[in-house]
Records
---
Amino acid sequence: MYLKILRLFNFKNFSEKNFTFSEKINCFVGNNGVGKTNVLDAIHYLSLTKSYLNYSDQNNIRFHESFFSVEGNFWNDTTEDTIRIVVQTGQKKVIKRNFKAYEKISDHIGKYPCVMISPYDRNLISEGSEFRRKFMDAMISQINSDYLHLILRYQKALAQRNALLKLFSANHYFDAISLEMYDSELIENGTKIHHIRKEFIASYVPKFSNFYSALSQGEEEVTIQYISDLEDKEPSSLLKENLEKDRAAAYTTRGIHKDDLIFKLFQYPIKKFGSQGQQKSFLVALKLAQLQTIKEYSSKSPILLMDDIFDKLDDHRVAQLVKLAHEEQFGQIFLSDTHNDRTEKIVQQISSDYLIFKL
Ligand SMILES: Nc1ncnc2c1ncn2[C@@H]1O[C@H](COP(=O)(O)OP(=O)(O)OP(=O)(O)O)[C@@H](O)[C@H]1O
């Protein structure tokens, strides 16, 4: 599966722009602010129906315009699919596959998978646990269609339980029976989520370690540890033991909504002790492992989007990344860089089948 044609209309800084791509490697080069990231983001839209960078669809409409459209033609051996996404001011987003609108947007997810490596990923290291949970949940959702429903059910019960705790606190009142209704939902779904996360991480981490080791040429030891309140406690005892604390705080203080992934370099938190290049290598390895996971489960080669990829990586690591791209037989690759000559020199080593788009 690969993206052959991309048509942008009023998408961010592009009024109208068409591209015809190589099946293998496509590079966008140009100065800061010319729209390199925006093209990668348009491809992300076609794959996952949303921007990687901007949660509001409306913000992606070109300034002073009333709608944008992004259209792509995906080729799969002999068949061709046209995906078209239109966002109009004040209206619901429309996504069509071969000119027919989807009933549910979720029906599109997974058909044309992609993985993005972006400078914004550094939030995964620098920010709070919710970023890492979202990353983990997004990865699992792409390979397990039931998982998202479990998460949604858990989140709904959690929000209701928290609202009730807040009400009790405001009114200096407590009713254990009504709280227990939500406890059972949290226990049932939380147990399943914990089990799935644990299993997933056990198979994901070795892939991640292999990629990091390849990038650093085996010189650095990295680990990812999954931590959860449910690791050594039954969810029912956890809720019981923390009831007084929850009442005082007026929210549910413990549970799988507090799970985290601990990223370490030589047993030290990479956030505090990793250099910028080491952190970038860590993020690249996380994403390549994600790509490999999707590939194994779906038997499709996801499109790899790499924004500003060579920045902060030394020549050895760039060479290793090139080697990986060559040996691992990734699918179609899109990358962006500010340096034309550097890009050309690097991609020539991966494949002779490449195109460079100067923006
Ligand atoms: N809704 C919008 N309408 C018009 N222009 C927009 C919109 N949103 C963003 N832009 C413009 O898009 C440009 C940024 O594009 P992008 O982030 O793709 O640049 P880039 O080439 O990747 O730059 P860098 O090398 O700095 O990463 C900016 O000039 C910004 O003003």
Note: The chain has two domains: 1-113+300-359, 122-299.
---
Amino acid sequence: MSLIEIDNVTLHLGGRLVLDDVSMTVEPGEIVTIVGPNGSGKSTLMKVVIGALQPDSGAVIRKPGLRIGYVPQKLHIDPTLPLTVRRFLSLPKRVSNEAAHAALDDAGAGHLCMRQMTDLSGGQFQRVLLARALLSEPDLLILDEATQGLDQTGSADFYSQIERLRQNKGVAVLMVSHELHVVMSTSDRVICLNGHVCCHGAPEHVASAPEYRALFGTGTHGALALYRHDHSLDHCDHDHAQDHAHAHTHDHGQNHSQNQPQDKVTSA
Ligand SMILES: Nc1ncnc2c1ncn2[C@@H]1O[C@H](COP(=O)(O)OP(=O)(O)OP(=O)(O)O)[C@@H](O)[C@H]1O
């Protein structure tokens, strides 16, 4: 069974169509990355996956008992508040020293345990957020632009850590990233979102897909095009995109949109 199955999800926010018939799955142990221009619905899709937003129609099916660890883009900590990494990991729920050390080690942050949160560099801070997400021993890690603000080396190191985690623990990863060059080498599958799924598949397949090239250009530095792209939902050729319309499609013959999430969600 898939860890997550999104079937034909449509969602409006503020009267605007943000997710248009989106389908995708995440299988155990795989790394799936969502790419797409600003405002293309990536964060919204992540919120649907963790159950923070309910779709207008379509189904979100989580494997029963699924544990999700969520690594946010940023977390604001009051700079006047003395808070060590160790204490941070025990908020809001106390964790044992053993669990805290194990999670920090897995996140490559074992040496940071007694440091003040406010003294950490951007990369160190993200590793601590990763450690916090690992405390629940998740089956699936969700990273929403977790390396935003890090330099290239910092984010490459962070993604290497993610790959090691997948290798050592078999955790699946669903992430949103703007760093296409890193994403292309790290992911098993890439889903290109622009309100709807423009194209999807192995990174090499997506990189050469006309829909992807229309959004990001042809070079590995197409990431730069990301911020310049005019992202109307109609940008992709719908007839052509029809062949690629769904990252994964199942006909369950019923609307599950009212389903309550069955999983345990950990938010860091
Ligand atoms: N609560 C909301 N109410 C109304 N519109 C919203 C809301 N949240 C998001 N939107 C709109 O939905 C669209 C998709 O937003 P979303 O944050 O999912 O995009 P994104 O692909 O993650 O963008 P970015 O790359 O800039 O982070 C945007 O046009 C945004 O303005």
Note: The longest strand covers residues 16-26.
---
Amino acid sequence: MKKVLTIAGSDSGGGAGIQADLKTMTVHQVYGASVITAVTAQNTLGVQGVKTLSVQAVISQLDSVLRDIEFSALKTGMLANSQIIEQIAAKIKEYSLPNLVVDPVMVATSGDLLLKEEAVETYKEKLFPLAEIITPNLYEAKVLAGVETEENNDPQVLAEKLITYGSSWVLIKGGHTTKKRSAKKAVDLLYDGSQFIEFEAEHIPTNNTHGTGCTLSAAVASNLARGMDMEKAVGQAKKFITGAIKNNFPVGQGNSPVNHFWRLQNLQHSSNQQFS
Ligand SMILES: Nc1ncnc2c1ncn2[C@@H]1O[C@H](COP(=O)(O)OP(=O)(O)OP(=O)(O)O)[C@@H](O)[C@H]1O
Ligand SMILES: Cc1ncc(COP(=O)(O)O)c(N)n1
């Protein structure tokens, strides 16, 4: 069984962050390990508190797992501040870790800030050059590219800018352009510096999309660990997230998470039918 590491924040509500990553890895049949950067007090209504761990606490977890376990891929989610990003980048370099997926989490769906502003430059300088792929949503792509105006919404232009920061691939997620309930398609754009590949899925009219970005990037990392090439890894992850959104169920009083177990439930359903 391949081993995959997530370095991210904890979501007490269980829908995003470390919890979403480990659920995603489990259903992709890879072994998930975790390094926690921050503990959020969070539920489906929003983020009520954030306690960022010290750099030493993060690096000590990282050293423990890296000294012992051989990882086939890793992903980063909420990294909170520039000191944590810098130290994590140094460790990834030191251990020559393969298949790094960077989800540059900045803001929760609820609007709560999960990254200090000063950390944007550190992402670009230290972590992106080590990444196989970065997976910003449209808002994050604009902040990273340094464009804030409404007219610079073209994902191709943003991808061309972001690839210059040194990752092998850029995936710009379209969830934020398709938040409107009238939207018909959810389109993500993959770019490797020469070719644009679009991944299109039906847009599901729901607010229960908590943790979509975390889940997608964890699925990409799991697929890379299992030996898929990037186009296939992203294509399969897109199918997984679409099914997970479609099969969401109510968890709390706010925006519920996606259903990580939808494929298992489908399998169970069809085997129950077969044997009943
Ligand atoms: N309503 C929807 N219907 C179908 N696909 C969606 C929907 N919302 C998001 N997606 C898809 O989910 C994936 C994650 O995209 P999104 O832009 O929501 O990421 P994100 O903003 O980083 O997520 P997060 O909510 O975790 O911050 C993408 O593949 C996107 O196209
Ligand atoms: C710990 C943590 N990491 C990431 C997210 C982003 O997910 P979302 O935008 O769906 O709230 C989150 N809310 N919490």
Note: The first helix runs from residue 17 to 27.
---
Amino acid sequence: MLRFVQSSEGFLLVYSITDLRSYEYIRHLHQHIRKVHSDSKIPIIIVANKGDLLHVRQVPSDSGIQLANELGCSFVEISTSENCQDVCDVFHHLCKEISKHQSTSTVEKRRGSIMPRPRSPNMQDLKRRFKQALSPKVKASSAMA
Ligand SMILES: Nc1nc2c(ncn2[C@@H]2O[C@H](COP(=O)(O)OP(=O)(O)OP(=O)(O)O)[C@@H](O)[C@H]2O)c(=O)[nH]1
């Protein structure tokens, strides 16, 4: 699993709204991703599946939203069996987030590689440094006199 997490550029963390344990496991998966990827902005979407099984729901939508906010992820509730378009949309959304993330991190890397130009010394600074350099000599010569 580590190998897959390392080589991935984005994640869909899926739980079932009918299974509280699968929801609780999301936090653990998220921690694992964070350990492997130091980049805190790697795209992660939390997906609540089986949205059609409302009569056996164990996880309210609000809990999913709350968790996603807390972990800084996107959130969507879907039903893979009722609406396969939802599945396409989730993957599409993830791909968009990955490409956005990659373009911003490339810009940041470029910015980081540009060395700041050394500031040329201004006259005030030169005067101050000149005085500083002279002052021990002045003291020494007055002590001799
Ligand atoms: N009603 C409903 N059933 C679903 C949905 N998604 C998957 N299922 C059903 O849930 C069962 C398990 O689906 P799998 O794709 O095998 O997924 P799994 O990870 O093994 O999931 P679990 O067995 O539920 O832990 C299958 O019978 C699917 O048809 C959904 O959105 N709604």
Note: Confidence is low (pLDDT under 50) at residues 138-145.
